[in-house]
């Protein structure tokens, strides 16, 4: 083989990046599809709400109670799921969670009462809780710090794709085959993913084709003072009591508690909002709901790129994350005008809600990454689980204290639009408050070193 004049040698990390990229991004794609299925399964009920209201005679309070059952189980499951993921590892833990939530999703088709739906939603919530601790831990294992927000943004966009696929498919299935088949068909998708996961996934530490240079690339950005993990997982897992002793954990908890409920609101109440404010029914609701989540997908990936752009300009990773999250928090605020704009044209309301949903996903891509920025990989699943529990509890509080009482009250007096005015104001303020509290607690990068390190 003939060679031209020799070029300057590539750095080992650049060579490793080119070599390992296909593995790294294939794994990101697997996590993306798991997240897509996860959100498709949880979004189905919001689109079947008109059919289920007719069959089971629900009001807004009944639906809110079923939503609370899901969120409470999800919150409890998040703590346990993170712990289990850290103990079993990502391959087995993710597989177990996906198998169980797929069974739970399909099980909705067997329900014959409102109480039964509460039980089914609780089972779905506790099993779906494993997705994000496993996904964040997978990202921490396979991506260097500077790429994690982008990888997180990409896989997290699966939540939007799931929410897009749902309105495009679920009403159609329900109209032509009945609401039970909507649960059965969407739930079965998890088992297809499960086969692919077991075939293709392995941790870097156990990957047969992973060279030392490739391994070094993945661990290149571990902050000074933290161990280079991934070769083994032999160290004991940090206890919850230990993790809750760090202000970094509480910063993440506060951020999730205040902002996760907003996403729950979009996911479970957007179809209801479009139906009651603009009279949309059945398949008519598909396009505006899909439009919101298309924008969300753009926001999720864009949120991963935003801090990367700051980093490329020389800003430290944590400062880049902090700055990006402030920009994102301001992008949510225009949702307070959603009702006013919607009075002129429905699509203006859809647009501003879509921008806010996109900003939420950009926020998520970054807030999740703060965990792997600051904690050793063996604690990432547990901390993510604790934060996920806080997000679930925040969702319960919002539903029980605000949505359930407020929506039932204003609907009973024929003024449901006022309930949405209040909710959209809460949505607009939540992220700015979360940012202030988070970065008051942790104003600068402070990596955690556990006692046994």
UniProtKB/TrEMBL annotation:
Assigned keywords, A-Z: Membrane, Transmembrane, Transmembrane helix
Segments forming domain Major facilitator superfamily (MFS) profile: 27-446
SUPFAM superfamilies: MFS general substrate transporter
The keyword Ion transport appears for this protein: no
Alphabetical list of InterPro entries matching this protein: MFS, MFS_dom, MFS_Na/Anion_cotransporter, MFS_trans_sf
Topology in the lipid bilayer: Multi-pass membrane protein
Residues spanning the membrane: 23-40, 92-111, 181-201, 250-270, 290-311, 323-341, 347-368, 380-401, 421-442
PANTHER family: HEXURONATE TRANSPORTER, SOLUTE CARRIER FAMILY 17
Protein name per the record: MFS transporter
Species name: Hymenobacter mellowenesis
């Amino acid at each position: 083989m003939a060679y031209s004049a020799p070029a300057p040698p590539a750095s080992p990390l650049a060579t490793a990046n080119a070599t390992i990229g296909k593995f790294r991004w294939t794994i990101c794609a697997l996590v993306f599809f798991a997240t897509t299925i996860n959100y498709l399964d949880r979004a189905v009920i919001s689109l079947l709400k008109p059919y289920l209201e007719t069959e089971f005679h629900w009001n807004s309070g009944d639906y809110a109670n079923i939503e609370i059952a899901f969120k409470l189980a999800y919150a409890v499951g998040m703590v346990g799921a993170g712990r289990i993921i850290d103990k079993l590892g990502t391959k087995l833990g993710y597989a177990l969670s996906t198998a169980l939530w797929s069974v739970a999703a399909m099980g909705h088709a067997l329900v014959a009462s409102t109480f039964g739906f509460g039980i089914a939603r609780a089972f779905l919530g506790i099993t779906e809780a494993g997705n994000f601790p496993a996904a964040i831990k997978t990202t921490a294992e396979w991506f260097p710090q500077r790429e994690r927000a982008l990888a997180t943004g990409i896989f997290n966009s699966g939540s939007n794709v799931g929410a897009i696929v749902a309105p495009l498919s679920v009403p159609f299935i329900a109209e032509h085959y009945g609401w039970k088949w909507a649960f059965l068909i969407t739930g079965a998708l998890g088992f297809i993913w499960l086969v692919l996961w077991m075939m293709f996934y392995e941790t870097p530490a156990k990957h047969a084709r992973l060279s030392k240079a490739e391994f070094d690339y993945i661990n290149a950005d571990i902050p000074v003072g933290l161990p280079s993990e991934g070769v083994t997982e032999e160290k004991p897992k940090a206890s919850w009591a230990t993790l809750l002793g760090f202000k970094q954990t509480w910063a993440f908890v506060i951020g999730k508690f205040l902002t996760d409920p907003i996403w729950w609101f979009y996911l479970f109440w957007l179809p209801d909002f479009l139906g009651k404010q603009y009279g949309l029914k059945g398949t008519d609701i598909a396009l505006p709901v899909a439009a919101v989540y298309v924008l969300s997908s753009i926001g999720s990936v864009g949120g991963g790129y935003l801090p990367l752009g700051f980093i490329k300009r020389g800003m430290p990773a944590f400062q880049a994350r902090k700055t990006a999250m402030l920009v994102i928090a301001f992008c949510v605020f225009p949702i307070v005008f959603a009702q006013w704009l919607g009075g002129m044209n429905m699509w203006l309301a859809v647009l501003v809600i879509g921008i806010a949903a996109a900003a939420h996903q950009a926020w998520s891509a970054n807030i999740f990454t703060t965990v792997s920025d600051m904690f050793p990989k063996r604690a990432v699943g547990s901390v993510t689980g604790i934060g996920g529990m806080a997000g679930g509890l925040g969702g319960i509080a919002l539903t029980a204290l605000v949505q359930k009482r407020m929506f039932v009250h204003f609907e009973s007096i024929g003024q449901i639009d006022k309930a949405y005015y209040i909710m959209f104001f809460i949505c607009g303020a939540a992220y700015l408050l979360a940012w202030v509290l988070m970065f008051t607690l942790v104003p600068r990068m402070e990596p955690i070193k556990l006692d046994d390190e």
